[in-house]
Amino acid sequence: MEARAIQIIQDTALLAHAKSLGTFTPVLALPADVKIHSIEKFQELRSRFRGALATHSLKDFADYVIAAQGPAVAGFVDGDSMACTVYFNLGTAAEPGHGDYTATLGLKKTAAFLALESAAQRQHAQKDLSDWIEDWAPNLKALDADDKEIDLRKAAGAIRSISIEQARKSEHVVGDMSASRSAMDQIEAKSAEGLPAEFLFTVVPYEGLVARTIRLRVAVLTGGDKPALRLRWIGEAQLREDLAQEFKQVVQQEVGGSATLTIGTFNLG
Question: Would you call 155 helix, strand, or coil by DSSP?
């Protein structure tokens, strides 16, 4: 008898008498080339309810979680992506569930917050920054070096009229055995209107959270042929940590006792 025929007889016998091996996790001994097929689609009902809701609406997310609540519902808040995922059938360590019935809330950044992030991440030409100030004037206040508010139109005009002044100072010292020479360049950016030192940008960062006032310090870069400007976001890292905590509190308040929330991400493994 050929080896292939013998193998087929052995596999057929193994399939006919396949039994659980009595391990903690149930397993069966089956031939290597056997494929498992689900026949759930042929049943009248699914074996269990499962699915994944994804929404940007805090209210709709909370309503869904409350309506679908069950025992040991757990949620995880990812502060980096400002998203919260709730598992309805995660179960417990003693009675673990499949974890394939979820609802995920991903907060959307507002247009103003996106504009702020973009502005703080790049250099600006004078006209570019002046136009940005005019576009977002309702959110902005300009301050001078003494923290006194100045007119926003005056601040935009000052940025448009920046001029670069350069002075050079030379010093030459001669001794009996040596000679030395030094030169110092002094470059200064000036404006007849008086440059703003900082901007205050008031914005609701994400839909559903409270408004924040963010400080942007103005820096003029004089290394090129034309002046460039940067807006340095003061306290950015701390603000993002605060937003993550606020996000958790807001979601917990909305869902009440329907889910227990933890800051972090969860991997089913």
Answer: helix
Q: Give the integer Cα–Cα distance in Å for 22 and 162.
A: 81
Q: How many CB atoms lie within 10 A of CB 201?
A: 22
User: Which residues, 6+ apart, have CB-to-CB distance to 33 below 8 Å?
Assistant: 11
- Of 76, 111, 80, 56, nearest to 241 (Cα)? 80
Residue recorded with tokens 């569930």: 97
Supply the DSSP symbol for 110.
P
Q: Which residue has the tokens 């009902």?
A: 45
- Length of the chain in terms of residues written: 269
Closest to 218 in 3D by CA, of 120, 134, 115: 120
pTM listed for this prediction = 0.75
Collapsed DSSP state (helix, strand, coil) of residue 52? strand
Per-residue pLDDT of 25-47, as tens digits, reads 777 666 666 666 677 888 888 88
Euclidean distance between CA atoms 140 and 149, whole angstroms: 11
Task: Compute the CA torsion angle 39, 40, 42, 48 (nearest 10 deg).
Answer: 170
Q: How far is it, in rounded angstroms, from Cα 90 to Cα 92?
A: 7
Place of tokens 């609802």: 103
φ, ψ for residue 248, nearest 5 deg: -60, -45
- The first and second tokens of residue 129, run together, are 């920054």
Q: Which amino acid is at 240?
A: R
Contact indicator for 171, 181 with CB cutoff of 8 Å:
yes
